[in-house]
Automatic annotation (TrEMBL):
Listed name of the protein: CxC1-like cysteine cluster associated with KDZ transposases domain-containing protein
Organism this protein belongs to: Suillus luteus UH-Slu-Lm8-n1
Domain of life: Eukaryota
Pfam families: KDZ (PF18758)
InterPro entries associated with the record: KDZ (IPR040521)
Length: 438
């Protein structure tokens, strides 16, 4: 997109706007605009553009200074994100974009169309589908700017390591105090796949097997997402099939017929991404996410997740997984087997799923019987998914990029505003519960 070439100028313009706007006392775009109207430089050019805010829209001349690199960056500097990169006729205010951006995280059902219709109703304008399209373009630009600003900030404060977020994902798990006693498990996480966040494959004709989606240069920032390529590095390992029945050491072998790929293969034809596979720490912070692509829960997804976690966290990890006993065998036979043993990785089974395992297996893997687990049930994924499932309706027919954007933004917001905010209460309640038991 033409926006890509302008992005660094747009990011600088956003920073200028944000700096100037810090003292605006919460006034909206239009009242500010009228205040500064008289002070426009006589040498400045101007462009007339329809500015859309939440309660009001008007066609206004906005100034273009000689210091502005692009028309778009001139608009962004004044708090308006244009809906087209070269000669925009319409723009949306930062406030209107930010309102939707945040509202969507709190209510993932809230679609762009619903928001644009809300604005139309408020302003007494008839809704047209092209308005949604325009808003969606401006929103993408806005989110891209925000993510660029975030990486600039991280760079400025020395957090440019690409694993920085993951290394500090959870204050309780990853922040070690001086002289702190080491625990049996340095970090307990739980991972699972979830098929709610499917996305329908777009095809040109009914018999076409290729996706009709246009290739896009847009990509989602942040390190939460494992790329498809990273995951596929572990695809060769699928020879160690997680669900093969011939394992003598495993008392639960042959129990997981419901997870066999053939049973659900027909479904994969319809969907491109068939869900997500993710790991969360025991406090509920999201660690990594991978897309499951045209398949069920194959072994490459947990292997990719474990590989990333071993790389970043190193020794003494404990991981809960609903078929943890089976995955232990898979892991030790895979390319990761050596380092998993050296780094003392433990595969466990969550308390709820444990009931489907045989008694002998439970004694080895079930959280109830393993020393060092305490009250932890390693079922955090189910709690996380029960909330994130609300995203399903908005990602099913979106593009690859927009689906990832929605998922990544959702988990970032949930970590910052939900999980982090509830962390103290969570720890306090667990502590009280533990005291009660002791
Ligand atoms: Zn944690
Ligand atoms: Zn088992």
């Amino acid at each position: 997109e033409a926006f890509d070439q302008q992005m660094s100028a747009l990011t600088r313009a956003y920073l200028d706007w944000h700096l100037a706007n810090g003292v605006s006392d919460g006034r909206g775009f239009f009242s500010q605009y009228r205040d500064t109207c008289g002070t426009v430089d006589v040498n400045a050019g101007s462009i007339a553009i329809k500015v859309v805010d939440v309660f009001y829209a008007e066609r206004l001349p906005l100034s273009i200074l000689s210091t502005d690199s692009f028309i778009a960056s001139a608009l962004v500097r004044q708090g308006v994100v244009p809906c087209s990169p070269i000669s925009p006729s319409t723009g949306v205010t930062m406030q209107a974009l930010n309102l939707y951006h945040i509202a969507r995280q709190r209510n993932p059902h809230f679609s762009i169309q619903a928001y644009v219709k809300t604005l139309c109703d408020l302003q007494g304008v008839q809704f047209h589908p092209y308005l949604s399209r325009q808003f969606s373009i401006a929103l993408d630009v806005y989110l891209q700017i925000l993510s660029n600003v975030e990486s600039l900030v991280h760079e400025a404060i020395g957090r440019s390591n690409s694993n920085w977020r993951l290394m500090h994902a959870c204050p309780a798990c990853t922040y070690t105090l001086k002289d702190e006693d080491p625990l049996q498990f340095k970090l307990l996480y739980t991972m699972d796949g979830n098929d709610s966040l499917k996305r329908v494959l777009k095809k040109v004709t009914r018999d076409d097997s290729e996706s009709a989606e246009l290739p896009s240069t847009q990509s989602v920032g942040g390190d939460r997402y494992l790329t498809r390529d990273y995951v596929n590095n572990f695809a060769g390992d699928s020879s160690v099939d997680m669900l093969s029945v011939d394992d003598k050491d495993n008392p639960c072998a042959g129990r997981w017929n419901n997870m066999k790929d053939e049973k659900t293969r027909r479904m994969w034809g319809v969907f491109d991404e068939s869900g997500i596979f993710m790991a969360v720490c025991r406090h509920g912070f999201s660690l990594v996410i991978a897309d499951m692509v045209q398949s069920g829960e194959q072994s490459k997804y947990p292997l990719a997740v474990v590989s990333k976690l071993l790389d970043v966290f190193g020794k003494d990890l404990g991981g809960g997984y609903d078929i943890g006993c089976r995955f232990k065998t898979t892991l030790s036979r895979s390319v990761l087997g050596q380092s998993a043993r050296e780094l003392n990785h433990t595969s466990l089974v969550g308390a709820f799923h444990g009931h489907a395992h045989k008694r002998l297996c439970q004694l080895d893997h079930l959280t109830t019987y393993v020393k060092g687990l305490g009250l932890e049930d390693l079922e955090g994924c189910e709690r996380t998914f029960s909330k994130s499932n609300a995203l399903a309706s908005s990602v099913r027919y979106s593009s690859i990029f927009h689906r990832r954007q929605a998922i990544a933004n959702y988990f970032q917001h949930a970590d910052d505003f939900e999980v982090y905010a509830n962390l103290s209460t969570f720890l306090y309640n667990n502590y009280k519960q533990a005291l009660g038991i002791l």
